[in-house]
Amino acid sequence: MPDVRNEIVTLLNDSAMVASIATLDENGVPRSAPSPFLRLDEKGRLVHLELLETSTTHRNLLRSIWFGRPVSITLTGSGDRVLVVSGQPHKAHVSGPLFSDYYREVRARLGDADLVAVWLIEPDQVSDETYLVRKEREEELYPFHRHLDRLAVQNS
Amino acid sequence: MSLALVKMSRPSPVDELAARYPDVPRLIIVKTDVQRRGVHYAENALGLLDERLHQTTGTHIFGARDGKIAARPESLLLRDGSSIITTPTPLEENPYVVDLRDGQPWLFDEGVPMEQVDYWPAPAFYAKTSSSGVPMKNIVSARPQRLNIFPYRYCTFWNNGKGCSFCDIVEQLKKGNKELQIPAKLDPVEVGEVVGEALKEPGRFSSVFLTSGSIVGGTRPFDDEVDYYIAILKEVGKNFRTFKYPSQMIGTAFDKEQLRRLYAETGLTSFTSDIEVLDEELFNRYCPGKTEWIGYQEWKRRLVDAVDIFGRGRVNTGLVAGIELAGPHGFRSEDEALEKTLSEAEELARQGVSTVFIVWSPRPDTPLGKYRNASLDYYIRLARGLHALRVKYRLPIDHDSYRNCGNHPDSDLSRLLPLWEE
Question: Which residues, in sequence order, are CB contacts of B413 under 8 Å at separation 6+?
Answer without folding.
Answer: B24, B28, B383, B384, B387
